[in-house]
Every structure is written in structure tokens, then in C-alpha cells.
Amino acid sequence: xACAVLIGGASSSDELVTGLPKxxxxxxxxxxxxxxxxxxLSLTGPPAAAYGLPMQRGFELARDEIxxxxxxxxxxxxxTIDDKGSVDGAVDAYRKLIGRHGVxxxxxxxxxNQVRETFPIAQQNRIVAISSLSSATGLGxxxxxxxxxGLTNDVLIPSSVETTQAILGxxxxxxxxxxxxxxxxxxxxxxxxxxxxxxxxxxAGETFQTGDSDYSVQLERIMALNPDAIFVSAxxxxxxxxxxxxxxxxIPYSVPFIVPYMTKExxxxxxxxxxxxxxxxxxxxxxxxxxxxxxxxxxxxxxxIEPETWAAQTYATLNILVEAMxxxxxxxxxAIRNALANIDDFDTILGKFxxxxxxxxxxxxxxxxxxxxxxxxFDVGAIDSIGGK
Length: 389
Description:
Distance between the termini: 42 Å
Order of helices and strands: EEEHEHEHEEHEHEHEHEHEHHHEEEEE
Radius of gyration: 21 Å
Strand content: 15-25%
Strand order of the largest sheet: 9-8-10-11-12-16-17
Number of strands: 17
Structural class: alpha/beta
């Protein structure tokens, strides 16, 4: 059910903003009069700039708006632990938040390889865990206390491949993926399955490893096969350089790079090399979903930058959690789990949001294309130059 609430503090006016929950938070807060929520993300290490800091900003903005809106109700307090971009760091953070702080809910971590190790800890301890970013297939099914807000690969990729293939008509393609990253290998597997289902020939499947910086050999082999498109499954630091090196060796712009979950930050880092590349993703700043334009304005005002996709997903995550706590009228993890499972068509900045039976997100995917340096809707932007069309 769509809800609305009067926003104070972070909002620029006393208008009603949809997407935030209506009503009061449960009154069984801790002795400080606050509802404590654990957060695990990367404040240091390689993932911090691309993933962790946008996640932190999204959580903080949502917390500030929720606290300002819940007059007379307990506030939200976030206990954030830096996972340092590692699996061990995320596992240690979970243990501290459960054992030392006694939280009912943990938000994060972001990487799927971290989630694969931390979700079982939450399930064993019957603590609600929600990852706002993780999208590798199957992790929500680890247990009924485990949820994810980012669109998973098995939801995002098949429909997006079907749509882009129907419009662009690519018949033979190549793939390039990070063989040492769990998300990337899962993404690549789903891409290959979707291509086969749509009758597309796979000419080559090249790989690299996390930490590599030279992709020229793989890209030269791909270029020699003259594909219609190149699918890339990789983490944020690798995506711009792959596109730059690909265009640098002469891969023509009529051969688009198609990159699941490429964000505007990666497109901007790649510069002209990103032109006509395509992203399958969860959010776009121009969307007219409930509360989205207010979120964009407030984010710009608070941080002085444009909101990132990962910030949008974490902002939505905290609002979805608070909606569940209000519906449950409890901070008991089992009650929250049950309320989360019953979230259905809840209005968020991502669109109408539901959880499926596995605890994974269900909402409309976005297909975007880079035009003149901007990610725009694939159905709206001029696409005549792509793929020889």
C-alpha cells in the first residue's frame, strides 16, 4: 500500500512526500529511546569509494528524514562497522553487531561474496539481514531472515537481454568477466543462459581476475571475431578501463558494451569510450517514481553531488525496513521478518516494491544507454547508431 508522511528537516518544504511510511515506529525501543540498526559496509579498502560511501550516504539521508518525520516516536540509530572491503571484515562485523550490540537487524554488506558468508550467521542467530546491493543469484534463499533490495541477476538479466536483443538484433556476441568475483561469475552465467535462450551465438568467453589492469589481450581476441556486442560482468573499478581500452584498440562504437549494473559513475569515468554502452540496472535519477525527485534534491542539498545508484538502493532499503517495523509494531526480529515478507507493491523511489518467496526484490528493471555522456532510458534515447542499426 502506498503511504505518505510529512517530512521535516531534510525536506525543503512542508509538502507530502510519498515513499516514506505513515504512522509511528514501534515503542519497544532500547533504553536510549532509539531503535538500533546495524550497518555493515566498506568505509575503507578498494570498494569504499564506489560502493561503501554511497551506501553510507543513502542510509544517513533516509535515517535523517525518517527521524524528522516520526514526531514523538523513537528515532533510528545506525551502528556502522567498516567491513574493509573483505569477507573476513564483514563476518567480523556481523559477529560484533549480534554479540556485542544485540541488534535485531543488520543492513549490508554490499558484495555478494560477503553476503554469501554473512547471511548464514544472521539466519543461525535469527537476526534479520538485508543487503541493499548484492545481486548474485540464490543468496536470499539462504534463509527466511535474509532479504535483498537490489534486483538479482536472475531477475535483471534474462528480461533485459530479451529486450535489447529484440531491438538491436545482435546475433553473435562475446563476453568478458572477472572469474574471481562471485557476482561477476554469476552475472556472466546468467548472461550466457539468456543469450542461448534468445538464439544468440557466443563467439568467445574471455576472463580476467580482480586486480588486473590490462585487458588488451582479451579485447583484441574479441575484436578479431567481429561480434555484434560485448557483454561485460565486472565490479565498478574495472568497467571504465575495459571500455577505454576496448575503444582504444579499435573496437567500433557500433559494437556496444552491455554491462549489467553499470552506473553513471562508471560511464563518466570512461568518458567518450562509454558512448552507446548499455546498462541493465535498478534505478535512474530521472524516474518519476514516488519520492524520487525529492530524494534527488535532498541528496544534492546534503552532499553536494548527484545521487549514485547504490545510494538510492540503500535509501530505499531503510525506508522498506521502517515500513515493515511500523506494520509489525515491534522490533522483534521474527516480527520484522514476517512483515518484510508481506511487503507488496510498496511505493519506493525504485518503483512499486515487493519481496518474492526467496526474500529477493521484485520491481521493474531499467535498461539505460549512454548518450552524450548521460545514461538515458533505452526506449527514449536515440539508438540508431548502435549495433549498425
